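Review this today:
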Amino acid sequence: MTENIRDAVIIGSGPAGYTAAIYLARAGYQPLVIAGAITPGGQLVNTTEVENYPGFPDGILGPDLMDAMQHQAEKFGAEIVFDDVISVDLTADVKSVTCDGGDTYQARAVLVTTGSDFRKLGVPGEVEYSGRGVSYCATCDGFFFRDKPIVVVGGGDSAFQDADFLTRFGSSVTLIHRRGEFRASKIMVDRAKANSKISFVLDSVVEQVNGNDKEAESVTVKNVTTGETTTIPANGVFVAIGHNPTTAFLNGALALDEHGYITTDGDSTRTSLPGVFAAGDCVDSVYRQAISAAGMGCRAALDAQAYLTELSA
């Protein structure tokens, strides 16, 4: 166990975690960032060109953006550990965080910025063409499929919102849903049906993403009622079947909503326990953007700083 008690430990990296680290480090708190063992930097490390993050008129690669944030945090005194948190004890004034590698860290304040994972289709070709046609963020990647056929997989509001947005770019948008009815709100469904660029393939599931050495070209779709298999042209395959917030490691330590997202006090980042704060996609089920996560990371750092200041008063 680490002997000294730290002011702040940040669980998770990505835009929220690294931004929180930058703010706390500049304030002199020397935070420890437990960034993750396999994919430090969050979802952006699996993204190619990021064109909607302010300050980069020519765009920036997702991994490069995360590297820059990490180095900026380290420049001001943050310490980075590449490990995964497996358990926490957050109830006492001094909180404990235990990592997979066996180390336990203690801190007066803990910030949770562990993000969320896109739900995957789990079909052949999905991983192979991720970043080369398969995407989980329409607002991030829609631009790359201008005048190309697009499919959207899903039946909720997010899928319909994505489909409507993607008609700005694609030559056509086909929405594929495994049922004959949608979970989306009526207004979203009516809007999509009124859009001549959107077509529907219902009672169907994607069985495979097909393509060449460079990009996706089509999806193989099976009708769950008839068993018939068809191929639909698609250079862009947008999966919109939901997200899973990365909060299971908390094991009930914090209050969560019905979908597993951490609940916070009003517009603050304060959680159900004093001295514990949360930011980014493990809290935000609506916007899920790098810039909004970074902004929330700033708020979490300022909330934590106010808490630490009050402790020392």
